[in-house]
Each structure stands twice: as structure tokens, then as C-alpha cells.
Amino acid sequence: MPNIKIFSGSSHTDLAEKIAHRLGTHLGKVVSRKFSNQETCVEIGESVRGEDVYIVQSGCGSINDNLMELLIMIHACKIASSHRVTALIPLFPYARQDKKDKVCSNVITSSPRTALAGPLWAVF
Q1: What b/e string do you get for 95-108 counting C-beta neighbours within 10 Å, with b at 16 or more?
Q2: pTM (two decimals)
């Protein structure tokens, strides 16, 4: 399969390996590490110029770290001139935060200052 690269985030490497094996290809080289202040650094270890890139990253575990890692990987592929970047997210995080209404003691209340993370994440 030419023009396809599959990369895995740190949350679900075994699933990404199974997908790559099923498609008859191998996982792309990616190095993810943390700086001493816990910021995430991701390095794509091969050329993605003109390629269709698929990144497998789940929303389980440390959700915010995994999401940040995914966003950094997407950005790295885009600035490296990939043709298209597709994120495969088996467990979509923040999906349950899509409504402002909350139930408190069988009374539905709505707070206009409630932040909704689900729609924010869906924008990307």
C-alpha cells in the first residue's frame, strides 16, 4: 500500500500494530517523550511528505496527555507536508460532556457558565 503511513501514539500501540499488520504494512517510527516539566515532545522518525497519514491514539488512560500527544503528532505531520492526516480514536474522550443540563437531586438545572469540552474537542 503506497502512500500510507500508520503511526501510533503511546496509548494504544498494540491496536496500531494489529491494524498495520492487517493492512500488510508496518508502523511508522515515532518517538514520544516528556520533558522535565512534563511537556510532551513528539518526533516523527520518517518522511511523510505527500503521504496519507493515520494516527492511532485512544482517549483512555491519562486523557489530557494522550490528546496533547495526538495534537502534536497531527501538527508535526501537517508541517512535514503530508497529504492528509486522519486520527483513529477508538475511545473518544470528553464525549459525555455534550450537554449543559445537569441532574441534581432529580431536578434538571442549567448553568450558563458550564464549559463543554466535548464540542471543543470535536472542532479539531
Answers
A1: eeeeeeeeeeeeee
A2: 0.76
- Could you give the CA distance from residue 55 to residue 57 in angstroms, rounded to a whole number? 6
pLDDT, tens digit only, all 124 positions of the chain: 568 999 999 988 899 999 999 999 999 999 988 898 988 889 999 999 999 999 999 877 788 888 889 999 999 999 999 999 999 988 777 666 555 555 554 444 455 555 556 555 555 5
